[in-house]
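We give this protein:

***
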Amino acid sequence: MNLSQIPKPASVGGRGLEPGENPNIRMALLTAAVVVGLALVVLLGRLWYLQLLKGEHFRLLSENNRIRLVDLAPSRGLIFDAEGRLLADNRPAFTLAVIPEDVGDWAVLTRRLHNLVGLSPEEIAKARRAAQGAPPFKPVVLRNHLDRHQLALLETFRYELPGVKVLVRYQRAYLAPRMAAHVIGYLGEINKQELERSNRAVYRMGDWVGRYGLEKSREQVLHGRRGARQVEVDAMGREIKLIKEVPASRGADITLSINLDLQKAAAKALEGRAGAVAALDPRTGQVLCLYSSPTFDPNDFITGMSTKQWKALAEDPKHPLKDRSISGMYPPGSTYKIITAAAGLAEKAINLTTRFFCAGQMPFGNRYYRCWAYKKGGHGYTDIHKAIRESCDVFFYKTGLKLGVDRLAKWARAFGLGRPTGISLPHESPGLVPDSQWKKKRFKEPWQDGETLSLAIGQSFTLVTPLQMARMTAVVANGGMLVTPTLVKTVTPPGGEPVPAPEPVKTRVPIAPEHLDTIAKGLAAVVNEPHGTARRARLPGIIVGGKTGTAQVVGLKFEKSFGDEENVPWKYRSHALFVAYAPVENPTIAVGVVVEHGGHGGSDAAPVATAVMRAYFGIPEPEPKQPPKPKPAPPAQPKPKKKPARPGAGT
């Protein structure tokens, strides 16, 4: 077939169809045009929506991605002693942090930080978990207290550490750490549970809060107010421009009533021993000295302790973290005879002419109750003055029997025992004042008269703290006022004037002035008269009043089973106690001392109180006694000449 034989397509209207006029193709083109048109309409509508309706919203989002709010933590208020010496300061320290939204690959960053500064993956994971729920632009603290070498490494490789920041923060520094550790206390980093209970406008993750001592009890005063900086950052999160800043306001400064010189004197006197000293001004209640031994360095809690260090501190058998001055509870021993004497006089169980005979022991029931002077044959006929001066147990046994346990308890409470003193420190112990109802409730049995004998001389169930002892003594010193101990003299807000602390609460003890005068004369005799039990507490030019005490911690028979006193194990030895005030004619200081398992009040506790009072009055320590010079040897005598042997001698 040739080409001429191929049939031609049919024509329409007398002419043939063009290829573009095929109905199927036309329909496809029309459909495509409609789709493109609709897409343009949707796109234009979306642009209208984004630009006109939501333009302001997305402009703000863009601005927030460029502008960042940086939190400014406040520095804590400073703490000074009574003489204006700085005890707690703030020093700049460097903190490693990370901005989560600037981190591209956490695995890479974790590996680099581990290689550079030894930060473990577990530490980073823990920090991230703690920061869950926080805005991603807020820094997450990874490590505090960077050293200079770590700072140099981070600065060298900072372009390989996206999101990593080195923050400069103020760190607490204690300048007399072992002199006032228990009073000032220490800080710790806030935890998640505490943060949830706290005001987010005040506290943030990574903040440090008071954990102990005044740092804890005065947290609201010392903490300060937060600030903020509005800054422009680049794509790497680096600050390039400061837009606005509201500076942080540091906490208020606190001036204490304690005197660093007295703290040092107490520390030196108690060195190597467990015990505590509390001293206050009996006129005002201001605490002059509050020292507990052994002590610790609160700076270790700021810079961080190893597990080994913490274990050694926490498991130390002498418990250095315990503030014995307000938390240690001890039998008061013969210092309690102040209470027995006051109760006896006030309740008219005894008077100035009452005399009891002390033969060194007193029969009661089927046993004998000994006086400490048993080996000397006792004190003979004894009145109240002699009984206080020489600490006659028999006199106070008999006075206690006349009074009974409940009247003794009444006067012990009147002198501030058996309840917290109200000092502004956490963890204060109330002590214990037993009475008949207490024993019935505690042991389900009645009080026995034989227990009253022990109670009257400060044994039995009674427990006191050193601060309570000083406060009890202050009642005698100030003429019958029970003062509330205070530690803070002034609070100074930033840029403001010092504001004096409120006047302490004072309560009148209902005892006649002549009875207090009788007790005061007896206490002065303890130190200054012959046969007084605290002659080692004398001060040149100052008349001191005091009372010794020795409190047994085990039965006398068990203690004697070890033979000589030096053979008794430390934990079974008696506590040594002493209370004092001075000058007797116008007292300005009252002191309570306990030396745990220290031996005797007069020989072991009284010198501690004396050292503190010497520091208070500015009396120098006496020169140590020089050993006597050895006597010169007598001149050598000439040796006698030997006689010549006789002929034949020795042969």
Q: What stands out?
A: The chain is about 35% helix and 20% strand. The CA atoms of residues 445 and 454 lie 17 Å apart. The two ends are 178 Å apart (CA to CA). Confidence is low (pLDDT under 50) at residues 10-17, 642-651.
